[in-house]
Amino acid sequence: MAFDGIVTKCIVSELNKSIINSKVNKIFEPTKNDLMLGLYNSGINYCLHVCINPSTCRLNLTTHSKPNPMNAPNFCMLLRKHLIGARIISISSFDLDRIVEINFECYNELNDKITKKLYIEIIGSCSNIILTNNNNVIIDAIKHISCNREIMPARVYELPTNTKNSILNINSFDEFNLCLSSITTNEPLDKKISDSFNGLCRPFIQYVLENNNNNLKASFEFIKNIISGIETNSLTCIKTNNDYVIDFSGTNDEPLKINFFIDDYYYNKETDNSFKSFRNDILKVVLSALKKSTKKLDNINNKLNECSKMNEYKVYGELITSNLYRLKDNTESATLENYYDNNSPITIPMDKSISPNKNAEKYFKKYNKLKNTLEIVSIQKKETEKELNYIESIVFSIENARSIHDLEDIFDEISENLITSKGNKNVKQKNGKKETSKDNLLKYEINEFTVLVGKNNRQNDELTLKIASKEDYWFHTQGIHGSHVILRTEGKEVDENTIFQCAKLAAKHSKAKLSSNVPVDYCLIKFVKKPNSAKPGMVVYTNYKTLYV
Fold first, then answer.
1. Element (H, E) at 36
2. By mean pLDDT, which of 64-78, 100-114, 177-191, 464-478 is the weakest?
């Protein structure tokens, strides 16, 4: 939903009915693009949120908290100095511009009552927050360059220039049509209207035209009626074409209806954007580790292929040694009877620059080297395969994460078990382990039994090794990455149908969730163990049965 001039006007109208005479008691700046003003008015606490992020810029009361940084930025400290204890005496907007002026009444050092102004410009990448005195002289701003203007202290604040027409000053359809006729380009009608008039975004214009069957006069009347309805609190936000626009609600029983809709809409949008960005960052790190481990395994397999020739080199050495009396120097090859293969002839490559005896030593040396390499590389292969299996389990957890909290769990896990183990010095070690709350686990009810499901490796460990009791049942897909599923028995007998439903749940929360026939192992928790030095989520189990679901 675009935060256009009409939405700005609606927000300002609602704020005028709720926070006038509010006292500012808190100010903090969670990020470089967010400013929060804590307000108190007649026994009610409000929080006014100003966001100047280009993609989510807005002004509204919010119920969603943001972390207060330990060290306040300079602009935040300046606002605290000037506005803490001040009262809001008026809030206004200019025409349908997305510029809001908030007037504060406060006291100076001499205890004289004075007025200060906070200008909030909600203009995409040019958004800004500017504090001035009563004479519009700038005290400071969060940005010093905005809309090709220098916003510097001690200069007089000037509004950004706007060349568009104001529909508030248009009183008839003829005037409206005349403004449109001045545009001679072959652009769509909705773009013409949006480019001609201030404060009207294209999604809103598209909705108006569709709602009025592209009748221009009816659309003009609709827009004017919408603007008239701003002060009467008769507007709301409705969904259309995968977006939201302003329309009539028919009721006026909710004084901050649009305000809190905007709050929830943009909060969900920011949360979704943060989730995607965080997930992609973690995935990038994990896939990089996966690529390195895969490459390492390929190199190990190549070495193992070389080691497959070691017995051949041993035979060469023995045959040369047993036939030294027949071999001459400076020979490039020797054809001898292989007594390991019914005396069938075998041609052995020789280095003519050295004696036959030295050639034999060379082959024995190759054999011993490859023999030692085989022992080392075989161990490395097992460790690398475990590492790959673990990294793939993390990828599965990332793909199934549904919240920022899930991703934070995964990030903590890879910080301790993946990133630092690769020697990354930029990741700080944590002193203590983060506890997993039962509330963060997935919870199901099956035939009056409680079933808990972990969403990542750390939750799987917590669930299986700490939360579950010895008589609970443990489920996991056989040889397939998936969640640990725990059936809480609480001393009751478990029937076959419940076991089967839990097995289906384990298949659903696994990498094989789209398969038609999935093997699921299950056993009592007392038969599930975690080996020493095993990675998170990795366990071994015995006395199990298998179901195909």
1. strand 34-41
2. 177-191
pLDDT at 446 over 80: yes
* Alpha carbons 161 and 415: distance in angstroms, whole number: 50
For residues 38 and 24, the answer to whether their CB atoms sit within 8 Å is yes
Residue pair 445/317 in contact by the 8 Å Cβ criterion: no
**How many whole angstroms separate alpha carbon 76 and alpha carbon 152?**
17
Which of 75, 64, 84, 83 is CA-nearest to residue 29?
75
> CB of 330 within 8 A of CB of 350?
no
H-only helix segments in 308-340? 310-322
Q: Which CATH architecture has domain 5-162?
A: Roll (2.30)
pLDDT, tens only, 24-69: 999 999 999 999 999 999 999 999 999 999 999 999 999 999 989 9
* 209 and 219 Cβ atoms separated by less than 8 Å: yes
CA atoms lying within 13 Å on the CB side of residue 313: 17
Among 16-25, 247-256, 408-417, where is mean pLDDT lowest? 247-256
> What is the three-state SS of 233-287?
CCEEEEEECCEEEEEECCCCCCCCHHHHHHHHHHHHHHHHHHHHHHHHHHHHHHH
